[in-house]
Structure formats: structure tokens, C-alpha cells
């Protein structure tokens, strides 16, 4: 698949990224938008495969991977440790080490006073949640072992110390921050959520709830399955055409990505002229552009929107490091989860004693 390398070859967005290490043992490589570093009160990050303790999703390279989802295959203790490492990087806080007890492994993200990580039972909907202080006070956001309570695919908050986490393995994570009112939002936009306009509607909710002005918003579309690899059915194109006037700009056709055909070309030899085979072109959907258009339609200035442009299905293939991200499509569902996290830094704590 020659096309696979297109996203990497462009190098798009690479100058916007930085990766950081944990300082001991394996590195937690996470992506940040360099443009966002100027906001001292804002914390954010997007994980890669690298830097965790999970082994189930590795290809034998002997390096632990950073699965951040409570998947059926992985050990919950690994996920808890991975989340602790990742959140320590995102927040810059010294998150306490994993604690275990007779009742089994505890979730250190939950035990730590900060950060407080909120996730959702995502179900490819347009449902958006607003995280309020009273939800936090009444413990309505996470279970004791760190699992999600709320269902939905978008959330927002303006409470310092609350971190919103969207889990993905191909779907599009979009993070938004209002740099004037200091509110943040996180969205999970696969094709169904994109069709439901979750990002466009989410910004409408920010306007209502926080008085956000679109020109004060900054947004990042994080790595997810790209137009290079995201083949969809004709019915998906019809759905998008029924909803978006710009739908034709979101689809492209590709002929070169049928692995069966590449492996057994003799099966497909016919007397027909090229282009008249029974196998037609695949339809590829560009969810990055679809969500960028929703941000633009909601009034976010183009210069404040960053599309990282790395494909979760093919970024890193062909290199020694291997696939850079977890990909549900490319790994036939047996894979881990990345996380896109955003939050307001906790209010600075007063330090007592002579050192303060
Ligand atoms: Zn790709």
C-alpha cells in the first residue's frame, strides 16, 4: 500500500508536536500542540502506543505499550499503571505510585487527589455532557475503580483539576479550549458522531454554558484513521451527502488497497480493460476534514485549528518502531486505546513552611 506513507511523507503538523519522557524506565511518548504551550493554565496531551507496561498488544518487540482503555484482554493493573504514567505527563503533577491492597489493584488515578480523570461510556452518539462541580462533589463521574459512569461522546468543564479523557483507536478525538473564559471540551467523533455533528453542536453548548465566543476557541484534531486508510461503504457516503453540502469534498476513491487482489492477482485476470473489473474503487472518507469543517462552521478561526494529520492505521509502519498508534481497523479489533486529555491545571496550592 504505497498510499500508506502519504500522511507521514507530508510531515504535516510535525512542527507542532513535542514528545516527553517520564525520566525513568520506558518513555511515555505523548503529543502536544506547541501552540497551546503559551496557556499556562491549560493541560493536554494525546498518547501513543509507547511507554506503558501492557504486553498483550505488542508484536514481540519486548517493549511495553500504553493501553489506556479497560479492554477485555488487558490486565486492569496494567491499565491503571499506564493511566498513572500518562496523567503524570499530561498534568506535570507528581502522581503517586501504584498502590495495591488485599482487595486487588487500585486505580492510582482515582486515588490521587489530582488529577481527576473523567471518561465516558462512548457509544458513537451526539450526546454531550457538562461536568459540573456538584457532579464531582457527589462522585457521579467515575466508579471507585476508575471506570466511566456517564454515557456520551462529548464533555466539557470549567472546573480546575478535572481532566476530560476521550478514548480512541481510529476514531477522531477533538479537543477544544476557550482561552478567554477558560473552559475545555473533548469530543469523540467517529463517522457516526461526525454525522451527528458532535463537534459543531458541542461548541454551541460551550456558547450557551460558558458564554464562549468562537473566536476565543482553539482546537486540535488528533491522530485518527486517515483518508489514506479509511475505506467506507456507499451507505456512509449517502448519509454524509444527506447532511453536508460539502460532503463531496470529504470522499475520495482508491483502487490500490485490496490485499486479496494483491496476493492472488491471477484470480483477477480478465479480458476486460483496466478499470472495468468487477472490483470497483473503494470509497475513502476524510474525517479530519469533516471535523475541521464543523469547527469552521461553528465560527472557530482557521488559524486556531490544528489538524495533526497522522493516521492511526499506518503511521510508523515500515520503521523499526512499528505502528505508532493503536488501530481498531488495522488490527482487526484486537488492540488497545489511546487517550486525548484536556483540563485546567489545578489551582496552585500554597506551600507551607520555610521552603514556601
Ligand atoms: Zn493511513
Which tags fit this structure?
21% helix, CNF1/YfiH-like putative cysteine hydrolases, disordered N terminus, binds zinc ion, alpha+beta, 356 residues, 9 helices, 2 domains, 5-stranded mixed beta sheet, 6-stranded mixed beta sheet, globular, single chain
- Average predicted local confidence, pLDDT: 83
How many β-strand stretches? 17
Widest sheet, order of strands: 7-8-11-10-12-16
Tell me the number of structural domains. 2
Note the beta-strand portion. Answer: 15-25%
| Distance linking N and C termini | 58 Å
Overall CATH class of the largest domain: Alpha Beta
The chain-level structural class is alpha+beta
CATH homologous superfamily identity of the largest domain: CNF1/YfiH-like putative cysteine hydrolases
**Biggest β-sheet description:** 6 strands, mixed
In N-to-C order, the SSE pattern is: HEEEHEEHEEHEEEEHHEEHEHEHEE
- Give Rg in angstroms: 21 Å
- List the ligand species: zinc ion
The name CATH uses for the topology of the largest domain is CNF1/YfiH-like putative cysteine hydrolases
Give the overall silhouette. Answer: globular
Which parts are unreliable, with pLDDT below 50 for 5 consecutive residues or more?
A: 1-25, 95-114, 349-356
Percent helix, as a range, is 10-25%
Descriptive notes:
By secondary structure, the protein is of the alpha+beta class. The chain is 21% helix and 21% strand. It is built from nine helices and 17 strands. It has helices spanning 6-10, 76-91, 108-111, 133-137, 191-195, 198-210, 234-243, 259-263, 287-297; strands at residues 30-31, 42-47, 50-54, 100-101, 104-105, 116-118, 128-131, 154-157, 162-168, 172-178, 183-189, 217-221, 231-232, 251-254, 282-285, 305-307, 338-344. The longest helix has 16 residues, at 76-91. The N and C termini lie far apart (58 Å). The chain binds zinc ion (ZN).
Amino acid at each position: 500500500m504505497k498510499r500508506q506513507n502519504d500522511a507521514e511523507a507530508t510531515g504535516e503538523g510535525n512542527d507542532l508536536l513535542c514528545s516527553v519522557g517520564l525520566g525513568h524506565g520506558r518513555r511515555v511518548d505523548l503529543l502536544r500542540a506547541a501552540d497551546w504551550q503559551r496557556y499556562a493554565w491549560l493541560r493536554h496531551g494525546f498518547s501513543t502506543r509507547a511507554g506503558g507496561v501492557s504486553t498483550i498488544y505488542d508484536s514481540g518487540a519486548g517493549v511495553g505499550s500504553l493501553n489506556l482503555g479497560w479492554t477485555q484482554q488487558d490486565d486492569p493493573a496494567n491499565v491503571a499503571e499506564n493511566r498513572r504514567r500518562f496523567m503524570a505527563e499530561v498534568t506535570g503533577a507528581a502522581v503517586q505510585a501504584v498502590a495495591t491492597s488485599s482487595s486487588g489493584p487500585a486505580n492510582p488515578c482515582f486515588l490521587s487527589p489530582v488529577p481527576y480523570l473523567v471518561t465516558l461510556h462512548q457509544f458513537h452518539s451526539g450526546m454531550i455532557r457538562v461536568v459540573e462541580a456538584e457532579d464531582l462533589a457527589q462522585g457521579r463521574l467515575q466508579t471507585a475503580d476508575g471506570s466511566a459512569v456517564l454515557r456520551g461522546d462529548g464533555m466539557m468543564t470549567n472546573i480546575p483539576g478535572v481532566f476530560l479523557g476521550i478514548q480512541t483507536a481510529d476514531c477522531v478525538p477533538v479537543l477544544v479550549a476557550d482561552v478567554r473564559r477558560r473552559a475545555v471540551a473533548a469530543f469523540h467523533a467517529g463517522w457516526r458522531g461526525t454525522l451527528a455533528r458532535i463537534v459543531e453542536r458541542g461548541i454551541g453548548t460551550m456558547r450557551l454554558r460558558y458564554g464562549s465566543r468562537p473566536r476565543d476557541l482553539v482546537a486540535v484534531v488528533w491522530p485518527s484513521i486517515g483518508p489514506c486508510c479509511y475505506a467506507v461503504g456507499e451507505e456512509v457516503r449517502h448519509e454524509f451527502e444527506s447532511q453536508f453540502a460539502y460532503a463531496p469534498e470529504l470522499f475520495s476513491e482508491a483502487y490500490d488497497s485490496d490485499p486479496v487482489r494483491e496476493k492472488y492477482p491471477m484470480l483477477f485476470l480478465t479480458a476486460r480493460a483496466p478499470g472495468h473489473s468487477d472490483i470497483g474503487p473503494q470509497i475513502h472518507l476524510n474525517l479530519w476534514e469533516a471535523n475541521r469543517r464543523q469547527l469552521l462552521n461553528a465560527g472557530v478561526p482557521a488559524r486556531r485549528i490544528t489538524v495533526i494529520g497522522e493516521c492511526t492505521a499506518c503511521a510508523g509502519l515500515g520503521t523499526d518502531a512499528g505502528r505508532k498508534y493503536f488501530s481498531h481497523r488495522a488490527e482487526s479489533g484486537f488492540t488497545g486505546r489511546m487517550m486525548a486529555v484536556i483540563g485546567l491545571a489545578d489551582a496552585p496550592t500554597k506551600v507551607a513552611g520555610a521552603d514556601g
